[in-house]
Specification:
Layout (H helix, E strand, L loop, with lengths): L2 H28 L5 H19 L6 H15 L10 H23 L5 H25 L5 H32 L4 E6 L2 E9 L6 E11 L5 E11 L4 E8 L5 E11 L2
Antiparallel strand pairs: 1-2, 2-5, 3-4, 3-6
Helix pairs in contact: 2-3, 3-4, 4-5, 5-6
Length: 259
Amino acid sequence: MSVIKRTIGVVLAAGLALSLGACSQEAKDTGPDYADDEAMSVIGQGLSKRFAIVDGDETGAAVVKKGVQAEIDTDSPLKDRQFEDSKLHENVISYINVLDESMDVLDNYQYQSVEYNEKWGEVYDKRTQILKTFVDKYGLKLEGKDQETLDELVANGASAAKERHEKETINKLISSARFEKKDEGYGNFTYTAVIENTSDLAFENVGIVLGLYDADGVKQETYASVNTWAPGEKVKFEAYSDCDATEIKPTVQYYDVAD
């Protein structure tokens, strides 16, 4: 091989190596197009669009639906984006799903009916709890009056989260209780359970329903209550019935939480 051919070959090989190296470095520098640093900006834009629609002079189901749809249209592209923070991704997807649930409520229930208000309240609480997470953990912020509205939503989210914690706590305490049956004679029975409040919440005016199922699966109900139930305190729930139950299912009927 001549000196000229060898020289050309070396130059070409070096050029190819540099080209491949540059491509590799470019791919390394670019990396995945994560949406983490854009997500709160997108969520904020969706909120502002919704606020602009629902805070106008017009009211009614059509206006609310238009506002929800504006937020869905703005946020939905985030579904197909990659996130470096998996928890942020989970919260974003959950938020978009709640927006879809809001639209389902608008489509399936008469606006401002009892059923509508109940279902709308549920999705509203879920939505505001996620917004509180966006504000607290990911720095979601808006401007002017939009920020004031967001502050109100976040306040509801805090209240809803507190109520959910209280409800989950007392339901867990009651559902795990084991009621003992005592035959009092003459077809009467006493149902008793001593339950310890292992939580840090002080409950008051606690009422529970005992579902009593006899050998034929027929259900009767009886009731038990206590006035106060402090953290760490054991209380006795006691109820009476003429049902000879083979299965007992306790559920919470009402309660208060002491300040």
